[in-house]
């Protein structure tokens, strides 16, 4: 999946998931969108039941705890399986942003260059 398609998919997924009222007040929901290394879609997407994107509820009592959970979700220890991630979050129905004001928490992830775009050639 190229970057433009991934960005479009994220935008659609974030809009859909963040506008849904199915989430209870006070919930922290982290939205994952993964880009797989070539030929590794099934393995990379397994954590989202075979899909590139999914939402996961997280225990967080405050927006700050939810933001921390979203940033932590950027970690990628499957360098030969998952090329990159885009992580978004919302708390009590409101979209949360990273420390630098981005909806993609991985834009601020300090290990991004070490853990993303490391697929075998």
What does this structure look like?
- The chain has 121 residues and is of the alpha+beta class.
- The protein has one domain (3-115).
- 30% of the residues lie in helices and 23% in strands.
- It is built from 4 helices and 4 strands.
- Strands 2-1-3-4 form a 4-stranded antiparallel sheet, with helices on both faces.
- The two termini are 16 Å apart.
One letter per element, helices H and strands E, the order comes to HEHEHEEH
In what range is the share of β-strand residues?
A: 15-25%
- Helix-strand makeup class: alpha+beta
Name the strands of the widest sheet in spatial order.
2-1-3-4
Characteristic terms for this protein:
121 residues; alpha+beta; four-stranded antiparallel β-sheet; 4 strands; 30% helix; 23% strand
What's the short version?
This protein has one domain. It has four helices and four strands. It has helices spanning 3-19, 41-45, 63-72, 112-115; strands at 28-36, 53-58, 82-91, 94-96.
Topology:
Blueprint: H1 3-19, E1 28-36, H2 41-45, E2 53-58, H3 63-72, E3 82-91, E4 94-96, H4 112-115
